UniProtKB/TrEMBL annotation:
Coiled coil: none annotated. Signal peptide: none annotated. GO terms for biological process: polyketide metabolic process. This is Ester cyclase. Pfam families: SnoaL. InterPro entries: Cyclase_SnoaL-like (IPR009959), NTF2-like_dom_sf (IPR032710). The lineage of its organism: Bacteria, Bacillati, Actinomycetota, Actinomycetes, Pseudonocardiales. It comes from the Bacteria.
């Protein structure tokens, strides 16, 4: 069953997130499907997935989620991914910047009876805003030394 669950989550990622095909969602998401993500309240059911895909594809028509690793344990499927996109559409109230982002993360999905019933999503929205230049990345005060063992990256040129 674990391999079937992995293939279902792979299908949802490739067809839904990457290709924007949503005709299958009622077949693979439960009626009471629930999404857990910081700061975003989505309705229960397949519409939650549809809203998320439409949100990302509106702002980033070339949005892709590259699967790096997948694993399963019982009903749970873990996914390590790298998302990319070019900001050519409106992102909430923010006009397009034309800039590209690359963000990595890990999501977890519960599959029961051949349907996705629950997801925990780890969108790194602050990192996306930093990379798009919408929000300035926090920097330590001038002259402050970083904690031992912490490297502070150089500021990116715009």
């Amino acid at each position: 069953m674990s391999e079937e669950n992995i293939e279902l989550v792979r299908f949802v990622t490739e067809e839904g997130l990457n290709k924007g095909n949503l005709g299958f969602i009622n077949d693979v998401f439960s009626d009471d499907y629930e999404v857990h993500t910081a700061g975003l309240a989505l309705p229960k059911g397949p519409a939650a997935f549809q809203m998320a895909v439409e949100f990302w594809k509106r702002a980033f028509p070339d949005f892709t989620c590259g699967i790096q690793d997948m694993f399963a344990s019982g009903e749970l499927v873990g996914l390590r991914f790298r998302t990319t996109g070019t900001h050519t559409g409106p992102l909430m109230w923010m006009p397009p910047t034309g800039r590209t982002f690359v963000v990595e993360g890990v999501d977890l999905h519960r599959v029961r009876g051949g349907k996705v019933v629950e997801s925990w999503i780890s969108d790194d929205f602050p990192r996306i805003l930093f990379e798009l230049g919408i929000v300035e990345e926090p920097r330590p005060p001038a002259g402050a030394a970083p904690p031992a063992g912490v490297a502070i990256p150089e500021a990116k040129a715009s």
